[in-house]
Amino acid sequence: MPGKAAPIKMSSAKKAVKKAPEPAPKPEPVLEAPPVDAPPVEVAPAEAAPAPEGEVVPAAPAEDTPSAEGGTPADATAREGAEFPTLTEAAAPAADDDAAAPAADAPADAAAAEAAVVEEPPKAPTPPPPAVPTSAPLDVSVDDVDDSSLTIKWNPPETIGDSGLDGYAIEYCKDGTTDWVVAEEELTPTNRYCIKNLTAGDLLHVRVVAVNRGGRSEPGTLAEPVLIREIGERPRIRIPRILKACYVKTVGEQINLVIPFLGKPKPVVSWLKDGQLVDTRVNIRNSDKDSIIFIRHAQREDSGVYEITVKVDSFEDKATVTLQIVDRPGSPASLKLVDTWGFNAALEWTPPKDNGNTEITGYTVQKADRKTGEWFSVLEHYHRLTATISDLIMGNSYSFRVFAENQVGRSEQSNVTKGVATIQKTGIVYKPPEYPERDFSEAPKFTTPLNDRAATVGYTTKLLCSVRGSPKPKIEWLKNQVIIGNDPKYRQISTQGICSLEIRKPCCFDGGVYTCRAKNQQGEAVVSCKLEVKQVILPGADKEKGK
Question: Which domain does 380 fall in, by range?
Answer without folding.
Answer: 333-422
